[in-house]
């Protein structure tokens, strides 16, 4: 059994995923695009 915590970041987004045996258990994306769209 393999469990992976994957984290990805960029200028305005951060993503986190948990994968167990090639199955995505959770995937969350947090974005600041709504805040940046005013500029």
Tags for this entry?
elongated, single chain, 39 residues, mainly beta, 1 helix
Written overview of the protein:
The protein has one helix at 33-36; strands at residues 3-9, 13-20, 23-31. The protein has 39 residues and is mainly beta. The protein has a 3-stranded antiparallel β-sheet with strand order 1-2-3, with no helix packed on it. A hairpin with a 2-residue loop joins strand 2 and strand 3. The longest helix has 4 residues, at 33-36. The mean pLDDT is 91.
Strand order of the largest sheet: 1-2-3
Q: Helical percent range?
A: 10-25%
Uncertain runs: none
Order of helices and strands: EEEH
Strand fraction equals over 45%
Intertermini distance: 46 Å
Number of strands: 3
Structural class based on helices, strands and sheet pairing: mainly beta
Rg to the nearest angstrom? 13 Å
Characterize the overall form: elongated
Q: What is the arithmetic mean of pLDDT?
A: 91
The largest sheet, given as strand count, sense and whether it forms a barrel, is:
3 strands, antiparallel
Helix count? Answer: 1
* Number of spatially distinct domains: 1
Question: Brief overview, please?
Answer:
With 39 residues, the protein is mostly beta strands. The protein contains 1 helix and 3 strands, in the order E-E-E-H.
């Amino acid at each position: 059994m393999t469990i992976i915590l994957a984290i990805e970041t960029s200028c305005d987004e951060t993503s986190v995923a948990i994968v167990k045996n090639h199955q995505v258990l959770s995937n969350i994306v947090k974005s600041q695009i709504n805040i940046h769209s005013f500029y």
